[in-house]
Specification:
This protein is an alpha+beta fold. The chain contains two helices and four strands; from the N terminus they run βαββαβ. A hairpin with a 4-residue loop joins β2 and β3.
Length: 67
């Protein structure tokens, strides 16, 4: 399943690394693609959307939407 999150506050390479590490910590098999200009994170995972969103929030970012 592919999940697309819109993340507020993701504006640099360090932000994308932090978010990627947070997601990979709960799903080492996940594929994570970040896009700073559109503030989106695409995740291919078997985990529920809520768990992925919670990992991003726990890393210190606001999730504005999940698709």
């Amino acid at each position: 399943m592919t999940i697309t999150l819109t993340v507020n506050g993701m504006n640099c390479g360090h932000c994308t690394q932090t978010i990627t590490k947070a997601i990979m910590a709960i799903d080492a098999k996940a594929t994570v693609e970040t896009d700073i200009p559109s503030k989106t994170v695409k995740v291919s995972t078997e985990l529920e959307r809520e768990k992925i969103s919670a990992a991003v929030v726990d890393a210190g970012y606001d999730v504005l939407s999940i698709a």
